[in-house]
Amino acid sequence: MSSGPRQIITPFRPIPLDVPEGMAANEFFNSTENLNDLINNNGLLENPEGLLLYRKALGHSNIFDTSIIYNTSKSVLNPLGRPVRRTQVPSHVKRDWNRMNQIIIEYMIEKFPDPSEHLVLAGEASLDATWPLTSPGVPSIRMLHNHFIVFDQLQLQKAAPADPANPNLTDGGQHSLFQSYMKDVYRDFLSQLDLEILKPVSSSESTLKLTGYPQGLPSWKIQGGVEALKDIRFWKEYDEVLKGFIDFYRAFFSQVSSRNSPVPKDAYFPDQIESVLLFNNDFLGAAKKVREQCILDPKYSNSIRWQPAFKQLIYRNDQNDLIVTISQNSIGNAITELLGVVVKRAPDAEAYEKSEPELLEKLLDVRSRLIKADLGQGIATAHWGA
Predict the structure, then answer these.
(1) DSSP H helical segments within 191-231, as ranges?
(2) Interatomic CA distance for residues 39 and 37, integer angstroms
């Protein structure tokens, strides 16, 4: 069987909502105005901290697919002032956030124990104003949320190959800016992190044989597997990976913006930036290439995401280990594409309804575990009770 990215088709039930004239569909579905529909028609659980578990109406998979969103739509009306990454979440909210993640990931591993039969992943991506504000499709809600997804390996094996030149697939691979020019210094900088539970692994361990992804990204094995997710030290290390990425991104684009810039203010690891990055010829040479192209090409310059944009992922590899990886997110692509899975959603109510009972059974099952752990109250909709 040849290795390469796959494109699967996932049916969904058409959503009975009219998108206001002048808005793109993804702008509306990410908008505050749509949150009421999300809660009332797809909400599963919410808690006083503002964390909302819901069914994905436009899902990636009908095997298992759910999300938690940090719903600050009514408490923080300024979209640019909302928490959009783990490092911005208040500590009491993050404590519940981490516990919810742990329980849901543990549930997926328990219900789908064989990596040869199911691909299991959980992760998040930046949703802040990292796109140019005038670009179409800029998310207007900008609220942090996690994805929890299971794909059927047989479906992936039978799926049509995805176009390797698809821009959504080149983001974390050999075509990306980080991987093309700064792979060694990027890995060197992240290797400076003080980690005990997360152990760096080679590409041979992190890459999925079926898709060939992720491509060339720094990755870490979670020593202790799913049990380690019950240890608060793991979640602190998971944050350290994100902080390291943010520092690298900010330091690089500071150099792109202004030659010979100092260490960014509020850096998490200022000493490492000074010693590893700002004295590295490849790092500064790559910034020069991008800076010069920005000056010459206004279209290219307008496409730059000057603020840290990332995808951070926990997934199960072929060897049944849990792996953490992180990638720049230069074009806002789906988190599944980091693993070489392109999802084409197709409106087909009849096909969706065939898989809906089993999907809902699992979503309500994991909801009951969260309620039992005092992580929220059930939400009643027209489709299920509280």
Answers:
(1) 203-206
(2) 5
Q: In the beta sheet, which residues pair with residue 157? A: none
Nearest alpha-carbon partner for 86 in 292, 236, 276, 253: 236
Of 38, 32, 74, 36, nearest in space to 59 by CA: 38
Taking each helix axis from N to C end, the angle separating 281-296 and 183-190, rounded to the nearest 10 degrees, works out to: 120
Taking alpha carbons only, the member of 333, 345, 271, 259 closest to residue 9 is: 345
Q: Tell me how far apart the alpha carbons of residues 354 and 240 are, in angstroms, rounded to a whole number.
A: 42
Read off the pTM: 0.93
**What is the spatial distance between Cα 313 and Cα 219, in angstroms, rounded to a whole number?**
10
CA angle 301, 304, 310 (to 5 degrees): 170
d(CA 345, CA 79): 27
If one counts every other C-beta atom within 10 angstroms of the C-beta of residue 45, the result is 24
Partner residues linked to 150 by β-bridges: 64, 120
Q: Where exactly are the structural domains of the chain?
A: 6-378
- What are the pLDDT tens digits along the chain (386 aa)? 789 999 999 999 987 777 788 877 666 766 666 777 788 889 999 999 999 999 998 899 999 999 999 998 888 877 778 888 899 999 999 999 999 999 999 999 999 999 999 999 999 987 765 555 555 555 556 788 899 999 999 999 999 999 888 877 865 444 567 777 788 899 899 999 999 999 999 999 999 999 999 988 899 999 999 999 999 999 999 999 999 999 999 999 999 999 999 999 999 999 999 999 999 999 999 999 999 999 999 888 877 778 888 889 999 999 999 999 998 875 556 789 999 999 999 999 999 999 999 999 999 999 999 999 999 999 999 999 99
Q: CB burial class (10 A; 0-12, 13-18, 19+) of residue 326? A: buried
Q: Report the run of H or E that residue 65 belongs to, with start and end.
A: strand 64-70
DSSP string of 222-280, one letter each residue: ETTGGGGGGSHHHHHHHHHHHHHHHHHHHHHHHHHHSTT--PPTT-S-HHHIIIIITT-
